[in-house]
Design a protein that fits this description.
Among the domains are: about 180 residues; about 120 residues, C2 domain (Immunoglobulin-like, Sandwich), CATH 2.60.40; about 120 residues, Immunoglobulin-like (Sandwich); about 120 residues, C2 domain (Immunoglobulin-like); about 110 residues, Immunoglobulin-like, CATH 2.60.40.150; about 120 residues, Sandwich (Immunoglobulin-like), CATH 2.60.40. The protein has 15 helices and 52 strands. InterPro entries: C2_dom (IPR000008), C2_domain_sf (IPR035892), C2C_KIAA1228 (IPR037752), Ext_Synaptotagmin_C2A (IPR037733), Ext_Synaptotagmin_C2B (IPR037749), Extended_Synaptotagmin (IPR051634), SMP_LBD (IPR031468), Synaptotagmin_SMP (IPR039010).
Length: about 1100
């Protein structure tokens, strides 16, 4: 502080204080008053009297609510509640005002107090004094203070000319909305510190500004129509604002754009005025600040940012506004230990434990774990995935709380810079909790983003062995840049819509903002999704009016398209369906694979490589046979293993059911809406509901695995579907002993406990056969007898016996795990028992699975430890069983993702129906050529067959013979055409195409179109799915036309193989076609056959 020569403070440094009136010279009026003390009271006395009356009137107003409550007859509780509410509001209000005063005083005295502490003025600091990381920028604060009044003028103009008209136009009730006062005050925003980071790239500059705004801002608004006034008077805002200058260019102004955002949510405190005073009520105060902070976060907190382009025609504006994440961190929240006890009982005399849960936060991404009751060492075992946008800067924050009915108790927190995870790749540590006691166990994995699909199978295989709860691990991320739309349809009355977009992937839906009064909206928003399997997932886009009731357009995009696109990116216009003829949407879609690139992690082998480790020929173990028994080389299941059969239940129809529906209080008799429930062996099935029919036809097939245990029964119940409680229509029971002995049962069963009704069932026992020679015929027959309402029929039965495991990894390096295993095929899984604390568990358990497509399905085995996660996994393609001896593998298998092995037996059995003619195809099991003609009817309503078994075998297998003549110049299509007499339907199955013609450099995207001539309308047109870039597509799709046989024989089936010329074009390229005269085809055969494709001028059947 500058001082005068005499050692006294200079007048400039002395604080200003109002002088005492007694020290001032008396004025003329003062002299007059003194000389005439008995004069009447002047204006000062009148002012004092008015002040006293005003104070009395205010205190009198306090009694008005009491009087009104008594006059209305309300309880005194309402008065007490209002008084408590007022006192709470007054307290919050005073605390905010006091906080603002203290903050302003600290800000005003900051320089003076600092200079007083250092015994020198800031102007006298030597040049060598500096701060290592954060630098003070007083010159910048002086510039901000100089600009602040002009910024206030700009804000006043912006609010009055731009924001106010927008608010008035958004709602008819706000047509009188106006800003009555806009003042930023005299306290400017201060930049406490500046930190400059070395740019991650040469074309950018990164600045972190630690800003503090403790201002006397005053903004008042008014809605004159409702006499409503509100506003803000005083505000505190503190946070770290990151400013990125990029791209750096070679022309003025050198910087192409400025991006600004808060790395973490800033702290906010607002002092309300007017009607918004109500927001200072306890409870609403913190809620209002939270809502406003959420609005700021949606605009200025990562991943959102404000972009200000400085040059015209800036490239990649969308990429700058919403850049791709730097990476993904997979957070494994494993456990905590040594937490403090917060629960107390009997007024604190008895100390309990805590009910801990954890909050994991990275930027705006927040995850909450489950609550573990009464535990100071909780085990969570949960996994979360967070996107990291800025390194350095962002932090992983974990807060642990004790769950309570009123307010949760704080147990501690930890913070970690994400840059440390990036540097380490994988971190698995116990982190101490700050502001509390105990530690939290985290495993953090940095996942890099790959711009190609080369390692997708490797990532998917790895994810199958990752234990993840509550969501499965992700294999990729998708970033959708939603730009604009054109020519959307108008609403009724030719009104402009208010379009918004809903983007969905499975059960995750995100929405864009609404753009008002336009059919050519511009959104310029980015959306991010995690993908578990990009090969099978789809992006669903719905363009709707802001009311969500009117759909303006739709788009479904298979994400597999991105896997073949350059750099996994699509940047183009997309045509909308269910919309106008020229309605389209412009989007940029960017996919990136998530790859864990760390030397600590060993990825499993890619599917298709031999997954078995045959240890049969290992040298015997050394040592005593008593201390270490020889290691078994094969399993030893019991004699009942592999003896299961499959029961195929065909629910055909019912007759003479009773009517349960009544109308008009029972005066009008209706019908029933019947359905069937089946129960067998602990499993239950349910048919579809047939509306308003007492003689319903279901024609549905169900399959269940059964054993040869005697006394089993199939329970069948028929119900009438109602809105409240379903009505009973009858029941019957079928003993399985005759079916298991004879193999087939076809009967009409009388329904019991009802006056009338009977049910037609057909049951067949399928015995698995250990040979793959009949698999193709079984798949062919299954496609023929497949009903439209039933699930896909099983072609094989897989029996698995899991005996034991060895060499499983230890827990925490020394303790053995408590392992269990999970066996799964598709959606069906089986979990074994848990064996306590051993690395060599013995399970001795078996499981059976129905297999629809043995060539493409696989057995997935995962070994996990109770509370420790994955110990290893195995993926066994069933195609390996098809080439094994007797379709069986029985040995040790090496586990992926760990050092262990498992001993199991897996055997496959082909399910051959004895009533479909397939048994005649194999000479091993059918020795009589006339066995086929002895069956009166084929399974599933196939027509009568009188041909011999060798003829049938030739009909089903000749088309796949390697000695067949080569395809024509345009290729061939494989079709099955037959008539399903039981359902009175013409059925066509499009199997595949081969050797299609390639006109250009790229292979076509073929699909098959079918049309029944002479009709050319949409009613008879059918279309298969489209296959990408192949000359030999596989379809295996079924199409049906309901018509009598006589009409089908008068039709011609026109089959066209086409290819889309481009995604944006509606034109289709004809690759070839064939026309089949159904009168010349034996529709009772149901055989697959290859047909030569011809051009449009020369079409006919082959």
């Amino acid at each position: 502080m500058d001082r005068s020569p005499g050692g006294l403070p200079s007048p400039v440094d002395q604080p200003y204080a109002p002088s005492d009136p007694r020290d001032q010279p008396p004025t003329a009026h003062g002299k007059l008053d003194q000389s005439s003390g008995n004069q009447p009271a002047g204006p000062g006395a009148a002012g004092e009297a008015l002040a006293v009356l005003t104070s009395f009137g205010r205190r009198l107003l306090v009694l008005v609510p009491v009087y009104l409550a008594g006059a209305i007859g309300l309880s005194v509780g309402f008065v007490l509640f209002g008084l408590a509410l007022y006192l709470g509001w007054r307290r919050v209000r005073e605390e905010k005002e006091r906080s603002l005063r203290v903050a302003r005083q600290l800000q005003d005295d900051e320089e003076r107090l600092t200079a007083k502490t250092l015994y020198m003025s800031h102007r006298e600091l030597p040049a060598w004094v500096s701060f290592p990381d954060v630098e003070k920028a007083e010159w910048l604060n002086k510039m901000v203070a100089q600009v602040w009044p002009f910024l206030g003028q700009y804000m006043e103009k912006l609010l009055a000319e731009t924001v106010a008209p927008a608010v008035r136009g958004s709602n008819p009730h706000l047509q009188t909305f106006t800003f009555t006062r806009v003042e930023l005050g005299e306290k400017p925003l201060r930049i406490v510190g500046v930190r400059v980071h070395p740019g991650q790239r040469k074309e950018q500059i990164l600045l972190d500004l630690n800003i503090s705004y403790i201002g006397d801002v005053q903004i008042d608004v008014e809605v004159k129509k409702y006499f409503c006034k509100a506003g803000v008077k005083g505000m505190q805002l503190q946070g770290v604002l990151r400013v990125i200058l990029e791209p750096l260019i070679g022309n003025l102004p050198i910087v192409g754009a400025v991006s600004m955002f808060f790395i973490r949510r800033p702290t906010l405190d607002i002092n309300w005025t007017g009607m918004t005073n109500l927001l200072d009520i306890p409870g609403l105060s913190s809620l209002s600040d939270t809502v406003i902070m959420d609005s700021i976060a949606a605009f200025l907190v990562l991943p959102n940012r404000l972009l200000v382009p400085l040059v015209p025609d800036l490239q990649d504006v969308a990429q700058l506004r919403s850049p791709l994440p730097r990476g993904i961190i997979r957070v494994h929240l494993l456990a905590a230990r040594g937490l403090s006890s917060k629960d107390k009982y009997v007024k604190g005399l008895i100390e309990g434990k805590s009910d801990p849960y954890a909050l994991v936060r990275v930027g705006t991404q927040t995850f909450c774990s489950r609550v573990i009751d009464e535990e100071l060492n909780p085990q969570w075992g949960e996994t979360y995935e967070v996107m990291v946008h800025e390194v350095p800067g962002q932090e992983i924050e974990v807060e642990v709380f004790d769950k309570d009915p009123d307010k949760d108790d704080f147990l501690g927190r930890m913070k970690l810079d994400v840059g440390k995870v990036l540097q380490a790749g994988v971190m698995d540590e116990w982190f101490p909790l700050q502001s509390g006691q105990g530690q939290v166990h985290l495993r953090l994995e940095w996942l890099s983003l790959l711009p190609d699909a080369e390692k997708l199978e490797q990532v998917l295989q790895w994810n199958r062995g990752v234990s993840s709860r509550p969501e499965p691990p992700s294999a990729a991320i998708l970033v959708v840049y939603l730009d604009r739309a054109q020519d959307l349809p108008l609403k009724k009355g030719n009104k402009e819509p208010n379009p918004m977009v809903q983007l969905s992937i499975q059960d995750v839906t995100q929405e864009s903002k609404a753009v008002y009064n336009t059919n050519c909206p511009v959104w310029e928003e980015a959306f991010r999704f995690f993908l578990q399997d990009p090969q099978s997932q789809e992006l669903d886009v719905q363009v709707k009016d802001d009311s969500r009731a009117l759909t303006l357009g739709a788009l479904t995009l298979p994400l597999a398209r991105l896997l073949t696109a350059p750099e996994l990116t699509l940047d183009q216009w997309f045509q909308l369906s269910s919309s106008g003829p020229n309605s389209r949407l412009y989007m940029k879609l960017v996919m990136r694979l998530l790859y864990l690139d760390s030397s600590e992690v060993r990825f499993p082998a890619v599917p298709g490589t031999p997954g078995a480790w045959d240890l049969d020929n290992e040298s015997p173990q050394t040592g005593s046979s008593v201390d270490a028994p020889p290691r078994p080389s094969h399993t030893t299941p019991d004699s009942n293993f592999g003896t299961e059969n499959v029961l195929r239940i065909h629910v055909l129809e019912a007759q003479d059911l009773i009517a349960k529906d009544r109308f008009l209080g029972g005066l009008v008799k209706g019908k029933s809406d019947p359905y069937v429930k089946l129960k067998l062996g602990g499993r239950s099935f349910r048919s579809r509901v047939v509306r308003e029919d007492l003689n319903p036809h279901w024609n549905e097939v169900f399959e269940v695995i059964v054993t040869s245990i005697p006394g089993q029964e199939l329970e069948v119940d028929v119900f009438d579907k109602d809105l409240d409680k379903d009505d009973f229509l009858g029941r019957c029971k079928v003993s399985l002993t005759p079916v298991l002995n004879s193999g087939f049962l076809d009967e009409w069963l009388t329904l019991e406990d009802v006056p009338s009704g009977r049910l037609h069932l057909r049951l067949e026992r399928l015995t698995p056969r250990p040979t793959a020679a009949e698999l193709e015929e079984v798949l062919q027959v299954n496609s023929l007898i497949q009903t439209q309402k039933s699930a896909e029929l099983a072609a094989a039965l897989l029996s698995v016996y899991l005996e034991r495991a060895e060499d499983l990894p230890l827990r925490k390096g020394t303790k053995p795990p408590s392992p269990y295993a999970t066996l799964a095929v598709g959606d069906t899984s089986h979990k074994t028992k848990t064996v306590s604390q051993t690395s060599a568990p013995v399970w001795d358990e078996r499981a059976s699975f129905l297999i629809r497509k043995p060539n493409s399905e696989s057995l997935e085995l995962q070994v996990r430890g109770e509370g420790t996660g994955a110990l290893g996994s195995l993926s066994l393609p069933l195609s390996e069983l098809l080439v094994a001896d007797r379709l069986c593998l029985d040995h040790w298998f090496m586990l992926s993702n760990g050092p262990g092995q498992v001993l199991l037996r897996a055997q496959l059995g082909i399910l051959v129906s004895q009533h479909s003619g397939v048994e005649a195809h194999s000479h091993s099991y059918s020795h009589s050529s006339s066995s086929l003609s002895e069956e009166p009817e084929l399974w599933g309503g196939l027509p009568h067959i009188t041909s011999s078994a060798p003829e049938l075998r030739q009909r089903l297998t000749h088309s796949d013979s390697p000695l067949e003549a080569p395809a024509g110049p345009l290729g061939q299509v494989k079709l099955t055409v037959w008539y399903y007499s039981e359902e009175r339907k013409l059925v066509s199955i499009v199997h595949s195409c081969r050797a299609l013609r390639q006109n250009g450099r790229d292979s076509p995207d073929p699909y098959v179109s079918l049309l029944l001539l002479p009709d050319k309308n949409r009613g008879t047109k059918r279309k298969s799915s489209q296959k990408k870039r192949t000359l030999n597509p596989e379809f295996d799709e079924r199409f049906e036309w309901e018509m009598p046989l006589e009409e089908a024989l008068r039709r011609k089936l026109d089959v066209s193989v086409k290819s889309s010329s481009s995604f944006m074009s509606r034109e289709r390229e004809l690759l070839g076609k064939v026309q089949l005269d159904l009168a010349e085809i034996d529709l009772s055969q149901g055989a697959a056959q290859w047909y030569d494709l011809m051009d449009d001028k020369d079409k006919g059947s082959s």
